[in-house]
Design brief:
The chain is globular and about 45 Å long. With about 230 residues, it is of the alpha/beta class. The chain has nine helices and eight strands. Helices cover about 40% and strands about 15% of the residues. The longest helix has 21 residues. The protein has an eight-stranded parallel β-sheet. Helix 4 packs across helix 5 and helix 6 packs across helix 7. It has a single domain, classed as Alanine racemase (TIM Barrel, Alpha-Beta Barrel), CATH 3.20.20. The structure holds pyridoxal-5'-phosphate.
Length: about 230
């Protein structure tokens, strides 16, 4: 896509966030836009950076590391949002500010152990399989409390909240159901672990962003509606 079209898309997404926040009584500053840039060339990331975008989400580790090298002159906030095998935790611990896709304790333990001492703690969200889909990543909702309690003990991580990728649904009312469930799960965690900085609900993609914001999303992860359809 042309750079001008990408920037126009970016601005349209920003306007949608503001409009949605107004209509549901939230402050737009409560919602951080994460530009999901998987499969996009580094030059497209640079274009949206120049338009003021600071947070970028990547799914594939090697691809992300290559782009980080190309864009090393920009102080981007890098978020890892894809599935992560335990033999690849070190690169995430060393090269990212956030990971949204932690679903088991072993991964969190490795990330904490491998986070370099001179870096601030790695921000993490626990991924929840909110629809209980066989094929999907994420901890079961019933396991999240125990997982969070264990993760909260790890020294080099900051437990920030929860992430989900619900199954696609037909309409906004149906989309809100899993998001509302996530909102109440986060509330439960905040009560269970009052000393943790649990301020993040990472949910909402191009097709269900408004429903997620209406249910308290603080980070929306948008790819297609910024960069166009993935090839
Ligand atoms: C690809 C991806 C997105 C963005 O999806 P779009 O529908 O393109 O906006 C968000 N979150 C995760 C985890 C993804 O893998």
């Amino acid at each position: 896509m042309r750079k001008a079209d990408i920037i126009e898309n970016l601005n349209r997404v920003r306007e949608r966030i503001v409009t949605c926040c107004r209509s549901c009584g939230r402050a737009p500053e409560e919602v951080t836009l994460l530009a999901v840039s998987k499969t996009r060339p580094a030059e497209d990331l640079r274009a949206v950076w120049e338009a003021g975008q600071r947070d970028f989400g990547e799914n594939y580790l090697q691809e992300a590391l290559d782009k980080q090298a190309d864009l090393a002159d920009l102080p981007i906030l890098w978020h890892f949002i894809g599935p992560l095998q335990s033999n690849k935790t070190r690169a995430v611990a060393e090269h990212f500010h956030w990971i949204h896709s932690v679903e088991r304790l072993k991964i969190a333990q490795r990330l904490s152990a491998q986070r370099p001492a001179e870096m601030p703690p790695l921000n993490i969200c626990l991924q929840v399989n909110v629809d209980g889909e066989e094929s999907k990543s994420g901890a079961a909702p019933a396991e999240v409390g125990a997982l969070a309690a264990a993760v909260a003990q790890l020294p080099n991580l900051r437990l920030r909240g929860l992430m989900a990728i619900p199954a696609p649904r037909e309409n906004a009312a149906a989309q809100r159901e899993p998001f509302a469930q996530m909102q109440s799960l986060l509330l439960q965690l905040q009560r269970q672990l009052p000393d943790q900085p649990l301020d993040t609900l990472s949910m909402g993609m191009s097709g269900d962003m408004e429903a997620a914001i209406e249910c308290g999303a603080t980070m929306v992860r948008i790819g297609t509606d910024i960069f166009g359809a993935r090839g």
